Amino acid sequence: MAAVTGKRRHTIEDLWVLSHQTDKRLELVRGELRELTPTGWEHGRVCARIARLLDVYASSGQRGVALGAETGCVLHAGDEPTVRAADAAFIRRERLPEQVPVGYAKIVPDLVVEVTSPSDTYAMVAEKVNDWLLAGAQMVWVVDTSSRQVSVHRPNQSVRVYGESDTLSGEDVLPDFACKVSELFAW
Fold first, then answer.
1. What is the rounded distance in angstroms from the CA atom of residue 75 to the CA atom of residue 135?
2. Domain for residue 173, yes or no?
3. pTM score, two decimals?
């Protein structure tokens, strides 16, 4: 009788150690390590612009904290550990831990921003959005650099799509935040 062998299930600790032993960008999805491809110029520029807008918002009135690209957040621990890395994120002040976390944050952001890359498939993006929302994110913006649109995903709500001439609102997650979608893509 042949022995049944499966893929090795990785832990959050495995991800932490491996991410410091290699220059590869990794995520942990239900115990499986996934390598992320390096991003291109447009992706990096849009991520930086969004992180800056969120940081300005977070800093004004000490509303919370903005996180920059590839900050690892633990979505699930246990049997199927998942650590995702958002392109940008925001956490409200009242949800922040008392001390800056060491390692991956065990808090799911209120807002998560995913900026698409040419290598992303619809299924890959949908899986990420679903993972974030199921873990407790209140809003996910998917910024599509090719169509220059933003899709807003909320738990148990229809997806709303905003074009370049529209104004993107933070709704109740980021009260008083608004920007033109075109600002995200401006040089």
1. 5
2. yes
3. 0.85
